Amino acid sequence: MTNPLIVSAIVLPILLAHAPGRALGRASQPPPSTACREWRECQRLALDAAERRDYEAFHDLAWRAVQTGPSKDPALMYLLARAQCLSGRPHDALIMLERLAAMGVATDADTSDDFQRTRALPGWTEVATAIEQIRIASLPAGSARAPSGAPALPAPRPDASDLMAFAPETVEQPVRVSTPRFAAGGLAYDAVSRRFVVGDHHGRKLLVVREGADHTDDLVRADSAGFREIAAIEVDGRRGDLWVATGIPDGSNWALHKLQLVSGRLLRAFPVAAKLEPLKIIDLAVSHAGVVLALDSLGSRLFVLRPGRTSLEPLPKMALPGLASVAATSDELTVYVAHAAGVARVDLRSGTVLPVVAPAGLEFGVIERLRWHRNALLTVESDANGSRRVVRFSLDASGRAVTAATIIDASIPAAAGPTFATVSDDELSYIIADPDRSGVPSQDTPPAQLADFIIRRIHLQRDR
Question: What is the rounded distance in angstroms from the CA atom of residue 268 to the CA atom of residue 109?
Fold first, then answer.
């Protein structure tokens, strides 16, 4: 039999010899939070850490984002709550969720797998009740009642964002490009070549940039494609086509250009008839059947170019204020149009325009871009306070009523110029001016003042 004293005499010195080295090595590594200085960078790094399940780094970076970001920012507070629970601090997460509920913010903590350990705590029932009451407050009057015996909560603030759940998706930044004298004129994504296609509004050309690249390459210029100022682009992935809308500021000489996506070669141009001028195309969409939709903000019209046709057909003029964006759906007869007062559902066959209704107290913000994803509307919008975010509006079976609203990204800088967005499979990408550069580009800004740009990508959840 081995003498235990001998074993101890051998093993103990080894453990003592190695333990200080491990402790010193761990202490000598800077905490992840020191790797970021600006809150948007901390937020991005935190989400990256969560994706690879490095939950300690997730916690440190999320905490740093809260420290350096806007005061009492709900999205950052929710991010920290997630990190707290996943890193083994469920009680800290409970306190953070309680603070969010007191602010009138309903999170998805009662259903998300990230908060399983927090839901097992004795104090969870009160927080869950508060979250449910906030949701009930967003429903039409008389449609639901608060649970009996539930504690009364302060009345929610009138800001519509208080009635939305905050459940940020994973956001990454695959592209940061230094391109002087640039203003975005559209964004599309080629899933086959894994390239972004960007419209250069003033340069009258299309640029391509690969994921992870820091520079652009010209795809096609005005001299070969007949471009005027580029206002919108869209990819038809099923047919390998790229559609571009160009025109001039006075509202004339507008056309749709059909190009081969892989090469940028012009296949055909479809000029808008002079009798339909003046117009200003601000957004494009392509249906699954290849129907091209062009939204005209100047004439408050929706143009349709059907497969095999050679001219654009205007639908009856829509009595909607301030048209902003158009989104095609999986239903070939239905599209959605964002305008200054909300969102409308348009029947392409009959031309019928019906409003999309939301629960009492919940309103659409000022929408810049509208896109479609799995029976939900994705909006890039700003709220009453000027904060910009990406919101998912889930719809009922009729497609005419909002059933839930969730802010999935609240990190868009207020001063970042106009935003273009595109959906490819389960990813939403959007382009904005680089907030770390001076100057805010727009299509009305002189070229000499234009700034660089970045592209961000949101990984959308299928089950929400």
Answer: 51
- By the 8 A CB rule, do 394 and 376 touch? yes
Q: Are 247 and 262 a contacting pair, CB within 8 Å?
A: no
Give the integer Cα–Cα distance in Å for 117 and 132.
19
Coil vs helix vs strand at 148: coil
pLDDT of residue 32 exceeding 90, the answer is no
Question: Are the beta carbons of 411 and 75 closer than 8 angstroms?
Answer: yes
What b-and-e string marks burial along 321-353, b requiring 16 or more CB atoms within 10 Å of the CB?
A: eebbbbbbbeeeebbbbbbeebbbbbebeeeeb
| Contact between residue 430 and residue 455 where contact means Cβ atoms under 8 Å apart | yes
pLDDT digit string (tens) for 145-196? 333 333 333 333 334 445 678 888 888 888 888 776 678 899 999 988 899 9
3-state secondary structure of 314: strand
Query: End-to-end alpha-carbon separation of the chain, Å?
Result: 62
Tell which wins on pLDDT, 200 or 443.
Answer: 200
Distance of CA 7 to the CA centre of its chain: 60
Which one-letter DSSP state was computed for residue 219? E
Strands 165-166 and 402-412, by their bridges, are: parallel
**Pairwise CA distance, residues 100 & 441, whole Å:** 35
Taking the C-alpha atoms of residue 336 and residue 345, their distance in angstroms, rounded to an integer, is: 5
436 HSE (CA, 13 A, CB side): 9
73, pLDDT greater than 90: no
Contacting residues for 359 by C-beta, under 8 A, at least 6 apart:
138, 139, 140, 163, 402
| Average pLDDT for the chain | 81
Cα–Cα nearest to 280, from 185, 352, 363, 364: 185
Q: What angle do CA 173, 391, 233 make, to 5 degrees?
A: 60
